[in-house]
């Protein structure tokens, strides 16, 4: 404890006074902390480290956070799989488009492949114009350039780029004359009946790592020499001065920007050293063992990291048609989507563990377990044709009874545990108000129905009658009128009715996994 720097520890306090619980952003300025800040006392409390600061503030730190490591932003060679063509002898990372769209695990696998290996291939994308934009929008945002929101890769009568001819193209980075360079490129094959025109990829990080091993001085030259990349046509003039190999402050490869066609005149540096290194690096990128070659078929959409992979193609004959549509987007959005998918998976795993663990326990004296009760409620909502958000609310309405992160089950001992509020607050980490508010209001809905619907109270189970009295009894006329005006009142009443139906011993219901895709689609 004493070895942790006080300002570092306090700057990372996770409490709601220090961080916005919705986005984690800090609510104070670092220069607003006392200059003599010190740890006044510390102790273990509920498995966490509690720190009392010299200014009176209290912080709690989970052990997992204190023992955590930083994996970085995922943009450098750290944590990536550097590869040669032989590494994909058994096949390249690919997935079916429909499976990618409908299965979050499949989507996560595709995006993870792009992050780790630099590329992935989607099969079966409809061969219709502009579908490449839909692929990009499935995880990010289209980046518009002087080529438009998308571009057609086919032979043009007056091409402003070698890509729009039938010539062979050596491994290269697209748009190196932009800063920032488009970090992701997508190429969707609409037609490919010409002879030739096979696609190729080279792992630029691997090529740079080979250069570093074989000729460290040349590697150093290419990391510290700004190269003028230039593009111009009748309507455009672009330039970016960037090294061929960019490294982070720790010396890790972060970006490769390689395009022989777009290098302008290098002045004001040591051209002899640069060209020696440049030629050596170019020769490495052309080594046959580094180049992965494959043929795009109609319906294939290639997604690749343009800051890492160099892409190429062979020349082709004009004895058939070759038509690809491409667009650019950015790694930031892909990384964000992947992180959210992982976060959702972790949340769903946590809920599944609650259902399988504590959910197997008794449910407030009823003849069903807590998990059976909640699953029955969800099944009733599903059978009634309820919208997805209400099926989710029915499934999760009693999550506030679970112990651990939530309040304990004191209700049967005569103490209101306010489980509807605690459950809704806990679920709000992942779900919006369309799910959480029916959960929050389902206890109030019981009190409301007992007040306004003759005979409803008579149908309550013995346990539900008991909890009604603990939770405040039927509403009076004024309370009922106020409840009815709430925006989520009707949804809460629907969940309440399914709640009361869901107490049948040995009733057949789907398992929790049946609802995972529905819950994943609703998560924010």
In brief:
The protein has helices at residues 6-11, 63-66, 97-102, 104-117, 131-137, 204-214, 216-224, 271-285, 331-356, 370-383, 388-396, 419-427, 433-452, 462-470, 477-484, 489-501, 516-522, and strands at 39-45, 48-53, 58-61, 94-96, 119-123, 151-153, 169-172, 184-192, 199-203, 227-232, 237-242, 245-247, 253-256, 291-294, 301-305, 309-313, 322-329. The protein is α+β, with helices and mostly antiparallel strands. Helix 11 packs across helix 16.
Keywords:
single chain; 524 residues; alpha+beta; NE0471 N-terminal domain-like; Double-stranded beta-helix; Hypothetical protein af1432; 3 domains; six-stranded mixed sheet; four-stranded antiparallel sheet; 17% strand; globular
What's the number of domains?
3
Low-pLDDT segments: 404-409
Share of β-strand residues: 15-25%
Care to count the β-strands?
17
Mean pLDDT: 91
- Going by helix content, strand content and strand pairing, the class is alpha+beta
- CATH architecture identity of the largest domain: 4-Layer Sandwich
What's the helical proportion of residues? 25-40%
Q: What is the third-level CATH name, the topology of the largest domain?
A: Double-stranded beta-helix
Strand order of the largest sheet: 4-5-15-8-17-6
Computed CA radius of gyration, to the nearest angstrom: 30 Å
Q: What separation lies between the terminal Cα atoms?
A: 36 Å
Q: Supply the CATH superfamily name of the largest domain.
A: Clavaminate synthase-like
The 3D shape can be described as globular
So how many helices?
17
> How would you characterize the largest beta sheet?
6 strands, mixed
CATH class of the largest domain: Alpha Beta
